[in-house]
Amino acid sequence: MAPVTNGRLIFNKIPTGLPEPGKTTVYDTSKTIDLENEPLNGGVLIKTLALSADPYMRVRMRPADVESYMPPFIIGQPIASGGIGKVIRSEHEGFKVGDYVSGVLDHAHYSIPNIDGPFGVKVFKPEFGLKPSLYLGAAGMPAQTAFYGWKEYADAKPGETVFVSGGAGPVGSMVIQLAKEEGLKVIASAGSDEKVQFCKDVGADVAFNYKTVSTEDILKKEGPLHVYWDNVGGTTLDAALENAATNARFIECGAISTYNSKDGVVMKNIDQIYARCIKLYGFLVVHLAPKWQKEFYEVIPKKIASGDFKYKEDITRGLENAGEALREVQTGKNHGKKVIIVSDD
Amino acid sequence: MAPVTNGRLIFNKIPTGLPEPGKTTVYDTSKTIDLENEPLNGGVLIKTLALSADPYMRVRMRPADVESYMPPFIIGQPIASGGIGKVIRSEHEGFKVGDYVSGVLDHAHYSIPNIDGPFGVKVFKPEFGLKPSLYLGAAGMPAQTAFYGWKEYADAKPGETVFVSGGAGPVGSMVIQLAKEEGLKVIASAGSDEKVQFCKDVGADVAFNYKTVSTEDILKKEGPLHVYWDNVGGTTLDAALENAATNARFIECGAISTYNSKDGVVMKNIDQIYARCIKLYGFLVVHLAPKWQKEFYEVIPKKIASGDFKYKEDITRGLENAGEALREVQTGKNHGKKVIIVSDD
């Protein structure tokens, strides 16, 4: 078989604000790959089926000398994210042709991924008839983030009140459902009326559009907060501190409000951390996986398949459109978990 | 015996910024008390020996309708704080004439204090020849704050690095000594060269005057921080977040940098809480007392008496000068634990 084109999304330029398709990332078709003869060196050749576009990826679009919790993308190389693929050739006994794999994949049609460490690809079998792409969202990393963080830090009691910012996203909507299952009153915020409706559809008792309604007013009326699940940081976090109950637990999962600006945020209620004995728990999903992953797979895929837990996917077709998908998750234009379909199964 | 003058420090006006003696508080000598006949209603009559002036008291100088973790002072009534007194008359079997008591006392020469609850006065015996006023500082609430918070949250390992802001105060200097005992490298900040020297005298490896040296620069050079003991909040907290190690523990004890202003602070590194998996623990000493008080009294007074643990007291003589003492602890003019001596023993 002759070499085939291997389309790739290349990291082209470090953005100063939002990532821009065609500038921050460029879709490149100049490379080919010989699927039969490309050397594997004991690894596996993967055909990419679906890729995840996540808010945190903005953190990787930075200069190579700035440290953070994930390595920076490299200019001239494909970007990477969680992905789903199929094994098309293998020199490793743990992988057979036709196996589904999930893990961090290059944004390319074909790749030889890392198979070691917490981000290396692993074989998985979609259960209960779930389509593979769900293992990027409702049964994948965002849902794991929600499940692990909630189990580890929420210390929730029935009747308590939780506020979930970014409530319509794949992490937030899972948190809402976990909290309702445990008998909490759930307040959720989102950035459009359609998203607010989705928060209600998955069980939020109070949901509001933070762009048209004052977060402070809602929290003052509906609080105090025993738990705050923070996906956004910034002034929303400040409002949550102002309306926290004594001994509140704040689960610090993300800070999308600050990813695209370096200006900082005026915070007026930091002193409430000590005054109200608030605990703030920063965490990354990868650190909690050893403790909670088994229970996650026992519980969540079944609930997704049965319809007990709801989800929403927002599909972008074609790797050539992935740059736009990356921008959408930064501005909140997506409705549900953003998945880039690269190839049909 | 004829009634005697009962000088009192009255809360006169809610301050907008720093408390001002003669305005925020007024020393009043218009009341007398009949020490032999004042009705006790089952309580005790106390002669005040010493009173504490603490930064947190600014939080109580607020409008009566604003909630916080301690009740507001009441206009026209004496302010109150931790104090040491001697029983001069008792109708309660738990108190005998001549007993020393400690607890929350009115700023008055004589009072009938609350004897119930966590803030009620209790009988104590100064041990190892310690002078009673030390039970307001090095063997009292500030040292308990340091001891309880450190034991509960520091999770310190030898060789780790801790940063202590407000290192020369009665809380900070105790934290430095606890951290050195456990084999940590200690960085401490303070607001004058004299205070910096005291931080070094009690064991800090690195101590600096934050008014003349950049906190960011020092932390960048001497960090990363595994533990941060936060007495000040604000931009110092932001600098600590920027220089935190992954999984750092931040013990949120106070926020004096923000007590006298409502403007808020620009924070640029809040997103590091999740990115570096930082845990922030807000706490109040009263909540941790049931767990750690016994160990505190077994360990600390002995170390104070032997000289193993060092302390500094800054004495103000006379209740009529207490208003000035309250201002000094807000501006950091005091050198060591500020104690107001009301009457000699």
Question: Which SSEs are present, and which pair or pack?
Answer:
Two copies of one chain form a homodimer.
Chain A: E1 4-5, E2 8-11, E3 25-28, E4 32-33, E5 44-52, E6 80-90, E7 100-106, E8 110-111, E9 122-124, H1 141-153, E10 161-164, H2 170-181, E11 185-190, H3 193-201, E12 206-209, H4 215-222, E13 225-230, H5 234-242, E14 244-252, H6 256-259, E15 265-267, H7 272-275, E16 279-282, H8 285-306, E17 313-317, H9 322-331, E18 337-341
Parallel strand pairs in A: 10-11, 10-13, 11-12, 13-14, 14-16, 17-18
Antiparallel strand pairs in A: 1-4, 2-3, 5-6, 5-8, 5-18, 6-7, 7-9
Helix pairs in contact in A: 1-2, 1-8
Keywords (chains A, B): Oxidoreductase
Protein name (chains A, B): NAD(P)-binding protein
Pfam families (chains A, B): ADH_N_2, ADH_zinc_N
CATH topology grouping of the largest domain in chain A: Quinone Oxidoreductase, Chain A, domain 1
Helix content estimate of chain A:
25-40%
Q: Please give the CATH class of the largest domain in chain A.
A: Alpha Beta
* Biggest sheet character of chain A: 7 strands, mixed
Terminal residue distance of chain A: 20 Å
Let me know the CATH homologous superfamily of the largest domain in chain A.
Medium-chain alcohol dehydrogenases, catalytic domain
Which regions of chain A are unreliable across 5 or more consecutive residues at pLDDT < 50?
Answer: none
DSSP strand count of chain A: 18
How many separate domains make up the residues of chain A?
2
Secondary-structure element sequence of chain A? EEEEEEEEEHEHEHEHEHEHEHEHEHE
How much β-strand is present in the residues of chain A? 25-35%
Spatial extent as radius of gyration of chain A: 21 Å
Helix/strand-derived class of chain A? alpha/beta
- How many DSSP helices of chain A? 9
Oligomer: homodimer
* CATH architectural designation of the largest domain in chain A: Alpha-Beta Complex
Question: How much is the average pLDDT of chain A?
Answer: 95
GO molecular function (chains A, B): oxidoreductase activity, acting on the CH-CH group of donors, NAD or NADP as acceptor
Domain Enoyl reductase (ER) (chains A, B): 44-340
Organism (chains A, B): Gymnopus androsaceus JB14
Keywords (chains A, B): Oxidoreductase
